[in-house]
Write a structure and sequence with these properties.
- The protein is 33% helix and 20% strand.
- By secondary structure, the protein is α+β, with helices and mostly antiparallel strands.
- The chain has a 3-stranded mixed beta sheet.
- It is globular, with a radius of gyration of 14 Å.
Length: 99
């Protein structure tokens, strides 16, 4: 399944800023269908409003969990102010990511 426009923007921004060794973007919007904030960029039901992210980057080395989440939220502030309602962020340094 191809990524939608919001997931593509998220991927580009995180890749450009963090050079991740692993980046997983899961559109979890379908689980929130019927909520008042569904719809994402194109306002279609279940579309691109909730995401689960896993980001593995050396940029996170030496940072705590809150600092890492703040960094990701800052990079995606425009999306969070618009079409994205919620992000679940798992941000890891390479030595924490395991196999």
């Amino acid at each position: 399944m191809s990524e939608g426009p919001i997931a593509t923007i998220i991927r580009r921004k995180l890749t450009d800023a963090l050079a991740p060794t692993r980046l997983e973007i899961e559109d979890d919007s379908a689980r929130h269908a019927g909520h008042h904030h569904e719809g994402g960029l194109d306002a279609r039901p279940g579309g691109e409003s909730h995401f689960n992210l896993t980001v593995v980057s050396s940029a996170f080395a030496g940072q705590g969990r809150v600092q890492r989440q703040r960094a990701v939220n800052a990079l995606l502030a425009e999306e969070m102010a618009g079409p994205v309602h919620a992000l679940s962020i798992r941000a890891l340094a390479p030595d924490e990511a395991g196999g």
